[in-house]
Amino acid sequence: MTDPVAARRAAIAAEKERLARARERRRSGEAAGANGFAQRKWRWVGVDGGDAVQTVLEVLKDIEQSAELTESQREVLGQAQAGAPDREALLPVVRAGLAGLKPEAVLHHLRALWAAGVRWLNEAGLERCRILCSTAPGIELVNARSRAVSGGPAFSLFATAATRGAIPVPNAVLAQVLPWAPLSVLDDLVERGGLLAEDKPWTVRSEEEALYLRARLTPTSISPEEAERLGWDDLLRRRAFLAGETITRQEPEDVWDLLYDVVMDVQLASLDALDAVLPRVQQIQLRDLRSGALVGQWDGGTIRDRGLWKLMASMWRPTGPVDPRRSEFYALVALNRAYDLLKSGDLEGADRQAESFVRERKTGHSLPADLMEEAYTIAAYVTAITSPEAENDRAARERLAQAESYAEKAAENGHPVAVRNLAHVRTWRSTPKNRRGVMTNPFLELGLDHGAEGWERRCREIFRRYEQAGDRASQARLNRAEDRIYEAAGNEAGFDVFFQIPLDRSRHELPDAVPRQLVPPLEPMARRTALTSGADLESIRALAAVELLDDFRSTAPHLDRHRSIR
Q: What is the 8-class DSSP label of residue 559?
């Protein structure tokens, strides 16, 4: 039994039953061992007392009835049962007879002999027998004196099973027990590190158990089809996340749900929940990521992980221009910052951020051409629409000339929208100031992307806000922007009559990539077996008892009159 308390109670009950039988024999007149002369003979073979003699006689009787013995061996048993045990011949015959019994019977007899004080085993065998007959073998095995106790394959496995893997199976006998050891005991060894992938236990088990052991020891070898057979959802969800697939949500949320929310959907409200379920290494990575967002500083490995860019950009709130030449990530952040400032109406901030792209530098990384085209487009737009605010006409003309220069650089590769924007700037520049129309893009004035749907609803929302604030000037400016959109929608050219930003919206988007960091490593499949049952432990104990027959003494110990063994 694995429960020491239950095992002890069972042992006490068995002992009470044995004593009751002995009392009954004495009352019925059975005088086995009662004769002093007979007891003296039995002491010469290590059996002391009437109860011990009776126990031995019961063992001999069972051996004689069950085992296949020679005539000479049966003669030795008969002589012993008649009260004249042969000190030289008895123990070899008992050993041979026990070897012919089933393991359960061998364990039963060895327990009976141990309880009766019959010590027919050598010193090493006695220590193993003490442990096998213990009602709490796990406690016995962790005793300092028992740590060095070793034995055959079955005894080694019993020591492991009784201590739930705390005492590993020696490598010398591991291969012998792997084919028949209960799966729960192998799980004990896996949990304690006593069974490793290089031991390849799956090669000697059934197909179903082999798959289970591979999942426990070499999870990377499990295919999606095998994971389906096992019902191993964690592996399947991990692979789906790494493949960029949509994760089916679970209740309650697991690490993959939260990782998808934070990294892919950028739900910053789930950061704390993700932090709570990540393994320690990934938890540290997430905390470094969050602390780096305070100042926009991360290590090189994090910066190179494109799957984290969306999350990093969402957590970081730069208060000044971002240097785009630090890396492609910073360039995308800087470009989007310039565009967002432009839509929010902060033309000065957008101008400073665009300037970080377009000003000439002798050092620094070169930026991708498509990003530079977008930056030149923003710079051209801001420079052009702010030209009327210049100090004088000469300064205004110079700003328009600069805007045309930026627009030309944006159109160098022939992008059709950039070419159309260049035409707008040239038209503005060639038109006299007093005949020049409004140069701004009304969608950007509303804080919307060019040509965005729902602009009418946006106009109503802004109008009500201005009305509540009593801002008549802003209401008039909003009405003019709305009128320009209506007018353009009715023309053949449509919204192309406005300077368009961005040239290509996809250039502003941060990559949809699976991150390399924050992803927990593939852990072995969790244990699915229960603790080793009492029946399994008893079957191993019985096989270990058979191994004790190799420790039988060839000559019985002799008890002197002081009952000490010689």
A: B
Are 139 and 8 in contact by the 8 Å Cβ rule? The answer is no
| pLDDT tens profile 268-291 | 999 999 999 999 999 999 999 999
Asked which of 8-22, 147-161, 333-347 is least confident by mean pLDDT, the reply is 8-22
pLDDT over 70 (residue 149): no
Residues 6+ apart with CB under 8 A from 184: 529, 530, 531, 532, 533, 536
The answer to whether 101 and 69 have CB atoms below 8 angstroms apart is no
Per the DSSP assignment, residues forming a β-bridge with 559 are 565
> Three-state DSSP class for 27?
helix
CA 269 to chain centre: 23
Reported as a pLDDT band with limits 50, 70 and 90, residue 362 is low
Residue 185 contacts residue 163 (beta carbons within 8 Å): no
Percent of residues, the chain, with pLDDT higher than 70:
92
Specify whether the CB–CB gap between 529 and 187 falls below 8 A: yes
Residue whose C-alpha is closest to residue 399's, from 351, 356, 468, 443: 351
The 3-state secondary structure of 37-64 reads HHHHHHHCCCCCCHHHHHHHHHHHHHHH
Q: Each residue of 458-504: pLDDT tens digit?
A: 888 888 888 888 888 888 888 898 899 988 888 888 899 999 999 99
Among 273, 274, 217, smallest CA distance to 515 is for 274
Say which residue the tokens 């060639």 belong to: 430
Tell me the C-alpha distance between 188 and 191, whole Å.
5
Q: Name the E strands within 133-259.
A: none
Which residues have a Cβ under 8 Å from the Cβ of 282 and sit 6 or more positions away? Answer: 517, 518, 519, 520
Please confirm whether the linkage preceding 557 is cis (ω < 30° from 0). no
d(CA 508, CA 374): 9
What would the DSSP string read from start to end of 386-433?
A: TGGGSSSHHHHHHHHHHHHHHHHHHTTT--HHHHHHHHHHHHHHHS-G
User: DSSP string spanning 243-254?
Assistant: TTPPPPP-SS--
d(CA 66, CA 82): 19
Q: Are 250 and 259 in contact (CB under 8 A)?
A: no
Start-to-end Cα distance in the chain: 35
Tokens read off for 466: 């201005």
Token pair recorded at residue 545: 């008892």
Round the average pLDDT of the chain to a whole number and report it. Answer: 89
Report how far residue 400's alpha carbon sits from residue 388's, in angstroms, rounded to the nearest whole number. Answer: 9
**Residue 431 token pair:** 């038109």
Token pair for 387? 């030209």
- For CA atoms 73, 78, 84, 85, give the dihedral sign: positive
Number of other residues whose CB lies within 10 A of the CB of residue 253: 15
Here the tokens at position 459 are: 């106009």
